[in-house]
Write a structure and sequence with these properties.
Strands 2, 4, 5, 6, 9, 10 and 11 form a 7-stranded mixed β-sheet that branches. The protein has no helices and 11 strands. It is mostly beta strands and 124 residues long. The model has no long low-confidence stretch (mean pLDDT 96).
């Protein structure tokens, strides 16, 4: 089992930045590939970014490429999502997720553990 707790969400204006964190506990963090997903009201949960176990590969949704950066600190058991140039359409609940696979890509079905989410609201 892995427990995931997101933090860092909030209300910001368009163009601002936020950094989300996902603290993990339980099984060794370095044994999981990790991802960020988001869900806006009335929409399905969608892929945002993913990173493999040793941070040698990262993947991004086209909608956030160039603005968001996923990273991890295996010594601190923590996943991050740096979000720059935020837009109102980035408003959503953001979830971190852990996968036992080495390369989880964007498929929700590849993730085995989920956090409770943190709200990000971007005002225009």
């Amino acid at each position: 089992q892995v427990q995931l707790v997101e933090s860092g969400g909030g209300l910001v204006q368009a163009g601002d930045s936020l950094r989300l964190s996902c603290a993990t506990s339980g099984r060794p963090f370095s044994g999981f590939s990790m991802g960020w997903f988001r869900q806006a009201p009335g929409k399905e949960r969608e892929f945002v970014a993913a990173i493999n176990r040793i941070a040698s590969n990262t993947y991004y949704a086209n909608s956030v490429k160039g603005r968001f950066t996923i990273s991890r600190d295996n010594a601190k058991n923590t996943l991050y999502l740096q979000m720059n140039s935020l837009k109102p359409e980035d408003t959503a609940v953001y979830y971190c997720a852990a996968s036992r696979f080495s390369e989880p890509y964007s498929s929700r079905g590849n993730y085995h553990y989920w956090g409770q989410g943190t709200q990000v609201t971007v005002s225009s």
